[in-house]
Write a structure and sequence with these properties.
4 copies of one chain form a homotetramer. Chain A is α+β, with helices and mostly antiparallel strands. The first copy, chain A, has 2 domains: 116 residues, 2,3-Dihydroxybiphenyl 1,2-Dioxygenase, domain 1; 181 residues, 2,3-Dihydroxybiphenyl 1,2-Dioxygenase, domain 1. Chain A is built from 6 helices and 18 strands. In chain A, strands 9, 10, 11, 12, 13, 14, 15, 16, 17 and 18 form a 10-stranded mixed beta sheet that branches. Chain A has an 8-stranded mixed beta sheet with strand order 2-3-4-1-5-8-7-6, covered by helices on one side. In chain A, β6 and β7 form a beta hairpin. Chain A is globular. At the A-C interface, loops of A face loops of C.
Amino acid sequence: MPIPQHIFDPPFNIIRCSHAMLDVTDLDASRKFYETVIGLHVEDADGDTVYLRGFEEHQHHSLVLRKAATAACDRLGFKVGNDADLDKAAAFLAANKIEHAFAKVAFQGRTLQFTDPFGYRIELYAEMEKRPHLLRRYEMYKGCHPQRLDHFNVFAPEVQDTMEFYARLGFRLSEYAEEDGPDGRIAAAWMHRKGNVHDFALTNGRGPRLHHFAYWVPTAMNILHLCDVMASCGYLVNMERGPGRHGISNAFFLYVRDPDGHRLEIYTSDYNTMDHDHAPLRWSLRDPRRQTLWGAPAPRSWFEEGSEFPGQPLREPKFKADVIVAD
Amino acid sequence: MPIPQHIFDPPFNIIRCSHAMLDVTDLDASRKFYETVIGLHVEDADGDTVYLRGFEEHQHHSLVLRKAATAACDRLGFKVGNDADLDKAAAFLAANKIEHAFAKVAFQGRTLQFTDPFGYRIELYAEMEKRPHLLRRYEMYKGCHPQRLDHFNVFAPEVQDTMEFYARLGFRLSEYAEEDGPDGRIAAAWMHRKGNVHDFALTNGRGPRLHHFAYWVPTAMNILHLCDVMASCGYLVNMERGPGRHGISNAFFLYVRDPDGHRLEIYTSDYNTMDHDHAPLRWSLRDPRRQTLWGAPAPRSWFEEGSEFPGQPLREPKFKADVIVAD
Amino acid sequence: MPIPQHIFDPPFNIIRCSHAMLDVTDLDASRKFYETVIGLHVEDADGDTVYLRGFEEHQHHSLVLRKAATAACDRLGFKVGNDADLDKAAAFLAANKIEHAFAKVAFQGRTLQFTDPFGYRIELYAEMEKRPHLLRRYEMYKGCHPQRLDHFNVFAPEVQDTMEFYARLGFRLSEYAEEDGPDGRIAAAWMHRKGNVHDFALTNGRGPRLHHFAYWVPTAMNILHLCDVMASCGYLVNMERGPGRHGISNAFFLYVRDPDGHRLEIYTSDYNTMDHDHAPLRWSLRDPRRQTLWGAPAPRSWFEEGSEFPGQPLREPKFKADVIVAD
Amino acid sequence: MPIPQHIFDPPFNIIRCSHAMLDVTDLDASRKFYETVIGLHVEDADGDTVYLRGFEEHQHHSLVLRKAATAACDRLGFKVGNDADLDKAAAFLAANKIEHAFAKVAFQGRTLQFTDPFGYRIELYAEMEKRPHLLRRYEMYKGCHPQRLDHFNVFAPEVQDTMEFYARLGFRLSEYAEEDGPDGRIAAAWMHRKGNVHDFALTNGRGPRLHHFAYWVPTAMNILHLCDVMASCGYLVNMERGPGRHGISNAFFLYVRDPDGHRLEIYTSDYNTMDHDHAPLRWSLRDPRRQTLWGAPAPRSWFEEGSEFPGQPLREPKFKADVIVAD
């Protein structure tokens, strides 16, 4: 299937992925998990909401946990270049008949919320309250030393269409997995704005659902230590996959599940993609090194389970997720 | 079942495990694997034999590869304190009606060879030709930076009896896995002479067979890099298990298979056991963290396959290996 | 002194620093140093020139060594977005009466060469021959596993003016060191295009000279191993400073000198700066953690020695380099 | 000068170094340093004393901090094999006219205290209260993950005589630094009982004084992180030397000073020495790689400052410490 070309003059300028907003059913349990085990910094909290960030981040939050009756991925946040980009975005959405609204969001400037044509709930903003980064506050480091939110990965029933929509917004394709043959469908796509492998990735599957969000950590040693910690203090069942090396993105990874089952990837060592002539890397679905360079298979849950977006009905993918599972 | 008490005055003084002698069917392929991929230093080689050692070792060899029609573990070598210990060992073997003989072995001083009552082919020596260690020759480091042979692990059909025999030789129990209940049988035993977790370990299973031998490397990073290298140059199928953390011994491990299927563990981060009052650590067979702290199961091959000793008929274990597999 | 504001619409689009061209007096010695000790991949070589790159790089070369009678930094190369940017750049240079010329450069597309108003010899290009990256060819990794060229750092006699010139080209300031007080002069500036801490940094000192160029490596462990290797094989005197942690950029660093004295930084763990509202971080010249978070001082040579650009007369800085040395 | 031969049948059996007892002037400040920054586990504490241990240690304490008017090293503790060894030790001390006494020491069994002929205050014991080790309690790890006390290093005015005395007690020489020439004096000696590089090391200098005690950590990464933490939370001035690689012992090291100036080495990656025929490694005083493989010199304080033993008058060394400093 055709892969989209880079668009250098998108209708508005998204800089990068910025924050995830998760609905969680037990706020204390979730805070304990993200603060104590993973090691994110709690910047603010009240009885209903906890705001967290990584040690490199200047922004007020990159993860928002909200107390809710049902676990869900409420929204995925992206940062745009400046205030004018928000108006350009609103114009684009209007022109494309995508419902949208400016909302008042705590700690953020003007925030434009919309649900894309595929059911992903998105918000855009240009300004968030700043906090001094904690990069050199090593005495505060804990857990696996999470530095920054790196990307979102979603289950997409229509990978090709979704990829094309985001390509129109300026997202560039860095890697993709494709069926072999002249009509091979694209089963997964990794797209970025910020110049590394991904800000937003699409995986063939029942959706719209969040597959995972990822924090970047400095080295694999931080991930190995997290494994030891999780195994030692009652989170063994939360370790879903890894540690291991992806062929795709070259990342060293660990996938863990939070107390509500939201999936978090702890991630390091991908590569730079800011060149305008950076060519997307194609993987055959038949190449086993794509998912795990070292050969260990992912568990079935990794292919099947994800976090729904509130109010967004699920659709089955156009082709079988088992194509991937079978690899 | 009773565990043996430390014997502080054994009949002769074994210092540590010293070297493995493997029969291999394709000497070039084996040399390439151990020298280029694993990174051992080839100290000597002729058309029939290759002698290798780790970068910390002063001794001429800790691994001997011998060209043979059939893959096998020819012998496991242990070093004794001095020449007199060899005579004491011969006297002990004679008193216990264990056949033995002094043999001429290249690069070694007087060498006493015997097959123990359970079929393990052993040799003892006090002196081997010395070579300058390569510890500070960092420019020669390659592969996963293997430093020293650490231990042997064998399949034992009679774990309890074998453990008791080696306890009489002064081997101390550091950890063991046991069925629950008053008559619980010991399914695995880790025994040492040199003051860390093991020189010689016993695993319930069809035997006598070598389960694996292990080289110690400085850090987990060396092991992760080895995974990347093996996956990149055609040795993906040789990666059998890991990387991961054992509950037992606390080791970070990777198990790989050489071109003949001999199993090698790459290993780091165990602990010290030289205290006379060091109490053996008991693991219940029902504790899943025993085998892998992080929860990933070992493949079936890991429980079933091993290297036979020439001329030693195999016996089935007294109780089912499946007790372990079932964990 | 005033710091420049971000310019979002520069006259042409530089993506990132791309390659250094060094004149070396003993090509074999230099190749041995960069290929064997540092571990760069030699992509091409003839009797006069060696082309090298890091394991992540798709481009033909990021370091060019040219046999010459005198050691020098011939040129610093930057990549622009596309071919049209080269024409825009030529127009900008013409408008600013900066001499420039398109040159034929091996393995590169159209290449625009100029000497900036301060004496730095620069070249711009949009296309270079591509090579498959070696990121997943782990079996080829050697030395300290250099992944990519990260930045250039030059001695600048006029830091303020030079910084302002490059700000006009769209370079953004990430960090800077300044004298205290209302008229405090800027002694050093770190500027980037690609979204990390720097592509081009300016250090107060006799110039124009190259202070160093830097390659990024995955982890500090790669740098520690390089130290061991250099100390073991005759390059002890080439280790000039570190390993250590910079306050500035948070980088873990090692500075080494090549056989001609060209300075190379091996570097890891800085941070992202792609946000449009990323505020430059100010360091007081009196803050000792700026240069070395851990307190160890840099040697005098580090402040005084650098690589000249051919034909560019040296000027003394407007204020004493000793302000820095005295820290 | 002659180096002592291994004595395999010492008058009593010391297994290893066990614990240091330090007099500190501000118990809260010291506890904060060792517990929060270094990361030792506080096992017990009252208003006058704090007991700490590493995460691998089964014993109640390996560091005892006692509130005192004057900072000092009160005693160095060694563990013997069993209770009978204490009586043998008492007999040996009596025969050698060395004053000694059994003392009641909290948490320890029978404890034999003496001051050796050179002024080092020592205590021996066979049994200490046991505590479950914390090796697999990764959720409790903090600081630099100190695992176990590794060794003591003392300033000795009479290195040769002190070395010979401890050799009679069964300590084996692993490495030593010697003046060149036929009458070259030994300036430093590393001696062990437990089978690694040292339990007790002697450095030529004004003494008797403790130069440092050392804790072993798993990897260099733990040490680099400690550097970052100390630099970030007010302990920059406590970082005295390193991180770096010793030629001697091959250790990766960091030397820090506690709030009273007691010196602590954080240490990893030495090697095994349990072989009976392990030959001591000689270093010429003229070999600069001995102290620091990477070339960075130690500060003057490192050669001059140490912790006195209460009531033990200081003596100048027989030859100038400057021999070492001059290296």
